[in-house]
Design a protein that fits this description.
alpha+beta; 5-stranded mixed beta sheet; Aminopeptidase
């Protein structure tokens, strides 16, 4: 297994994994959004079994007044056959180390209320719930 940042020019190769998370979003929409996200600082780290991309975790480096510079893992997903093998912990260790190298002092993330397995994973990783994430559609 190898873990590395996915080159910006190859970002669309994460679309099959994003389809697992959001099967109702057309690939064209994902391409448009990924293109815009990259211009806003989005990066994605991939975990590979040989040459096969088997898992991803998006990352954002942000600074907020209440926490300072931090890394935000975003939409971690693995191919189903690679789940529950400890690879999520391995991928997150890479993300934490990357964050430290970028000068981050913390990590924050969002996890859906309905994602019970995700909540369990993040708690095992040492995350504590500190807020609700609200959303209001403008269109």
């Amino acid at each position: 297994m190898k873990i590395e940042l996915i080159n910006e020019g190859e970002i669309f190769k994460i679309i099959p994994l994003l389809n697992i998370l959001s099967p109702s979003l057309p690939d064209e929409v994902l391409r448009e959004r990924l293109s815009e996200m990259v211009t806003q600082g989005y990066k994605c780290v991939g975990i590979y079994d040989g040459d096969q991309l088997i898992g991803i975790c998006g990352i954002w480096i942000l600074t907020k007044y209440y926490v300072g510079k931090h890394i935000e893992p975003d939409n971690m997903v693995f191919l189903p056959e690679y789940r529950s093998k400890g690879l999520g912990k391995e991928l997150m260790s890479w993300v934490y180390e990357y964050g430290l190298k970028q000068g981050c002092v913390a990590s924050e993330l969002n996890c859906y209320l309905t994602n019970k397995s995700g909540q369990k994973f993040w708690k095992q990783e040492g995350y504590e719930p500190i807020a609700y994430h609200y959303q209001k559609k403008l269109l």
